[in-house]
Every structure is written in C-alpha cells, then in structure tokens.
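#struct-help
A.M.: can someone run this one for me? Single chain, 487 residues.
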Amino acid sequence: MKDSSWFPTMFPHKNKGLELEDPVIGIVSFEATRMMCKVVNIWNCLTDRQMSLLKEELRYSLGIRTLISDDHNYLMDLVLEEIVDNLKCVAISVARLGKKCVDPVYHHLDHVFDNPFEIDLKWCGWEYRLKKMEKRVKKMKRFATIMLQLHDDLDRLSAQEIRLTKMQYNGVNKGQLHEFHQKVMWLREEVSGLREMSPWVRTYDYVVRLLLRSLFTIVERIKVVFGITTGIRASGIRDLNEGGCFVGKNSMCTVARASVYPSDRSSKRPISKNGYTPALCGRYPYPYPSNKLASRNDPRVRIFQNDNYGPTKKGNFTVNAKKRMVSFQEPTLGSACLALRYANIILFIENLAMSPRFMSSVAREDLYDMLTTNVKLSLREKLFLSKKEKDLLAYDESIASDRKSSFQRILDWLSPLAHNMIKWYSERSFEKQPMGSGANVLLVQTLYYADQATSEIAITELIVGLHYVCKYSQEVIDKSFMGCSIF
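D.P.: on it. Structure tokens below:
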C-alpha cells in the first residue's frame, strides 16, 4: 500500500497566491503560544483577587517578614520589579516575531517596552478595554489548550507513521495493514482539525497584534494596581537617588484609568497628607558576612531560640524605617545561587521529620552532603556540647520536647517559602506544557530574596531540631537508648 508522509501535505495553504504577502506562523505557533501563556499569567497576577491575596501574604507571612523584609512597600517593589521583568521578557520575543510580519509597523518593536511607563505616544490607544482583554485572555487560554493537545497528537502521529512504514516493509497482511492505516488517517484528520483551531494557521501579523495589544493593556493595569502615573519610574526603573517614587493624588492619568478600570479604585496606595504616596525601599541593614559563624549573641539567632518571637515584637531584630533606607544590601540566596539548593534541603528535612523513627544513616549522610560549608561549620558549633550538657539533655524530656516544638515552629514558616521556590522553578523550566500549573508564584514568595546569613541560621536550627526530634522519638520507644545524633 502506497503511503506518503503526512507532514508536507498536512498543512497546505488554502491560497498559495497569498503565501508571500500573508504567511502563517506554522510550527512557530508553539513558541507563540508560550508567549500567550506568559501574558495570561502576568494578567492573572494583576487581578483584584490575586493582588489582595498577595498583599495579605506579604503582610502576615512570618517567613517573608523574617528572611526578606517586613517593609510592605519594599516587598511590593520586588513584586513590581518581577512583573515588569516578565513583561519585558515577553516583549523581546514579540519584537523578534514582529520582524516577520507584513505590516511594517511591527518591524521595529525592540525598544518599545524598555521603559514600560514612558511609552511613545504613537502607541496610545493600542491597549484593549477591560472586557475585551478578558475575552482575549480566554482566547489565549483556549489556544494554549489546543496547542497542548496538538503537541501530544503530533507525537502520537509521528510514532504511528513510523510503525505503519515498518508494517509495510515487513509485509503484514492486508487486513491488519488497512485497519492500522485507517487509524493513522483518523489521527491525521484530528491533527488537521486542531491545527485549524490553533494559532498554526494564523498570520504573524495576527499573533503579534494580539500579543502587543495585550502587553500595552498589562502596562495600563500595572499603573492602576501600583499607583504609577505616566512618566514616573518605579522599582527597578526608579531613580533611588531621588529618594523614592511619589505618585500624584489627582493626576489626569489616574482619573483616565479609573474610567477604564472602575473596580480597581480601591487598589490604590494610601495617600499622605501632602497628596503623595512615598515608597520606601531597603533591606535589613545587618553588615553580617555570610561566611562567618553566627554568634550566639546575634539578634537573628535569638529569633529562632525565642519561642514567643513574632515580627511585630520590639527588639534588636526589628529595625525602623530610617534604618531600612540605608544602601547596604546583604547577600541573598538568589544572588548566591543557593535558593533552589536550600529549598531542597528544607524539604528534605521536612520529609525526614515526618518519619523520624525510620531515619537511617544513609538519609543522615545524604542530608549532610547537601549542606554548604557555611551550614556545616555552624552545625558543628551548635552540636558541640559539653558532657554535662549532653547528660542533662539526655535525661530531661522537657528540654527535648521544647526543642521539638521550636523545630516545628521554624519549619511551619520556612517550609512554604521552600515549596514555593520549587514550584516557581518547575513552572519556568517545564516547557512541554505551555500553560504550566498557573499558580503564579512570584519570587518574593520564595527563598530567592531571603537573606543568606539568616537563612543559614534557620537551616542550622532546623537540623539541630531534627536531631532532638529523632532523639525524642527514639526515647519514647526505648528509654535505655541515650543517643541518636545525626552526625
């Protein structure tokens, strides 16, 4: 039975005369769909509900307030910076795609979003109205779903094409060959139908226009959510030497946007008496080298030892707004490329704590191998106890119980950041599924911006706590067993 490859004849142009002046994107639709998914995720991050949940988390998350900052304005600056960076990343890809468009207006998009809040006036009016944007978001989601199905069907069809060729070569009886050939033809028709509903048959101009107008709409939405007026720079775009960002109370841009997004008026920042909203930026100003051991008198050590600690408690660890304005920036886990590694360590400790009675020597060795030099040195200091202290701890169950409770409290506020770090990384590295999980985790909700020294103190305390969790669990089973040290 003669059979030709499906790919050259599967997607013929309906009008070859228009091919040169109106080309379709074809296989590039997979890349275009990923752009659409990023646009959808950015837009979803900016909804009233998501922003409300995010602000609540930033205010009340003990992990974020302990490891990153308790300055809400600074945390929102980090959110804005990441959203703008994501938008610029999509804009770069759209500009590259625009060079293949027929309409010359799309040929020079490279620098349109260099500063999203100071876009050339010639692009005024390109943004969608709110209701229309919602429809476009649904369409892009539908495109993503179709492309995901198309991707799977193309894989299946490729495998069946190969199998059909082998069956023809091996001389399979005509009945089986005909039956399998019919299955291949049905799958071809299914692929063809999906292709017709997908961006595959759309032109470059159509796809670029959809993405470009969506980006302009997102810029306007960002201005509303973060209270940014045209011409004012913010976060990574702000000039920090000028003392921060100030938003006018009754600017024309704010009034104009309120008419487009009437439901978003409540999302503006509070206005001060002089009619402007200052934005403070800063970090905890501890000039604390991460390569040194933590002193027991360090205030950040006491936050893990004090069972009654809370971010609102007055003490050495809580710094006022003036101190947060200093320019000193401590090393973060992101800048040290340790965020993902420490997240895996925390989750590994969490898993071991769930079944401490069955923690093997292999698991202890695996945990130790995962640690960095800083944590290993700090851990050795913590576990170095005098014989008198060892004897005391061995026979005092109340101390072991307190250690176990302290361990659980630290894990409760540290674990969510570790889980979010893994989730953030997975969403951006799993390219096969365009839509991903749609969780919209931001870096400020992860360990990325976490202070390195403070994080290492917390992890050290977790490991020491795990030692007592294991020890306490074993003593409940066998009172005669007087040691279960991890290392």
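A.M.: thanks! Residues 395 and 479 are 9 Å apart (CA to CA).
D.P.: also worth noting: The first strand starts at residue 246 and ends at 248.
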